[in-house]
Amino acid sequence: SQKIEQNSEALNIQEGKTATLTCNYTNYSPAYLQWYRQDPGRGPVFLLLIRENEKEKRKERLKVTFDTTLKQSLFHITASQPADSATYLCALGGSYIPTFGRGTSLIVHP
Amino acid sequence: GAGVSQSPRYKVAKRGQDVALRCDPISGHVSLFWYQQALGQGPEFLTYFQNEAQLDKSGLPSDRFFAERPEGSVSTLKIQRTQQEDSAVYLCASSPGLETEAFFGQGTRLTVV
After folding, report:
1. Would you call A49 an interface residue with chain B, using a CB distance cutoff of 8 Å?
2. For testing the chain A interface, which of B104, B108, B109 should be mutated: the one with the most A CBs within 10 Å?
3. Which residue among B43, B99, B105 sits closest to A100, beta carbon to beta carbon?
4. CA angle, residues B107, B92, B12, in degrees to nearest 5
5. Which of A37, B31, B35, B49 shows a CA-CA span of 20 to 30 A to A108?
6. Closest Cα of chain A to B108: distance in Å?
7. A78 touches chain B (CB under 8 A)
8. Tell me, what's the pLDDT at A1?
9. Of B90, B95, B62, B74, nearest to A93 (Cα)?
10. Helix, strand or coil, per DSSP, at residue A84
């Protein structure tokens, strides 16, 4: 069956460092992959979308890579700030329905 | 409104009670999704609408769950004879088309006691 894996353990980093979050998947051939941010008590907020024919995408301090051979996406936040603390969800799309991972909690310490 | 609006924000239901959750998507958005999110988990797909047509309801957990979008805008998720395992946050999302970003509402937190 299709499986999306995101590290269930929280990632703790120091302010100013680069945070790297991982999304691995199996039994899936997504046409695109999305990353969302979710704060407690709120709905997810879209950050970036990367398609299967794209290797890398950037937006301000965010960078996403997509390796369809490794079946993995990496999500980087450079120069992290305490305000970046949240849960980050990856979502895979092969049809019209995004399928979400469970998310990884990021905690940026001042 | 500027975003997706869901109501009520919180709902406490007694076991066996029927509930109705409302979603007002962004105006003009063709696609509408319902997801269920348990604590500490990612959103789990429930059902998808393209305009008024329910194209996929494979994620609905049982026949107690029913969703509609009769005029292709506002959608209602109805849960009949609620059970404790139905307790979760129900998220609605809309998007302008296929393979594009989804805009989520704040969700309705349902607690069944």
Report:
1. yes
2. B104
3. B43
4. 40
5. B35
6. 10
7. no
8. 75
9. B95
10. helix
Q: How confident is the model at residue A2 (pLDDT cuts 50, 70, 90)?
A: confident
Residue that is written with structure tokens 């991982």 in the block = A22
> Measured between CB atoms, which of B31, B42, B91 is closest to A96?
B31
SS (H, E, C) chain B: CCCCEEECCEEEECCCCCEEEEEECCCCCCEEEEEEECCCCCCEEEEEEECCEEEECCCCCCCCEEEECCCCCCEEEEECCCCHHHCEEEEEEEECCCCCCCEECCCEEEEEC
Would you say B20 and B6 are in contact if contact means Cβ atoms under 8 Å apart? no
Task: Inform me whether the C-beta atom of residue A31 falls under 8 Å from chain B C-beta atoms.
Answer: yes
For the segment B36-75, what is each residue's pLDDT rounded down to a tens digit? Answer: 999 999 999 999 999 999 999 999 999 999 999 999 999 9
- Hey, are the CB atoms on B56 and A97 less than 8 Å from each other? yes
CB atoms within 10 A of CB A14: 10
The answer to whether the CB of B62 falls within 8 A of the CB of B79 is: no
- Whether the CB-CB separation of A101 and A36 falls below 8 Å is answered with no
Contact B3, B91 (CB under 8 A): no
Q: What tokens does B88 get?
A: 């979760």
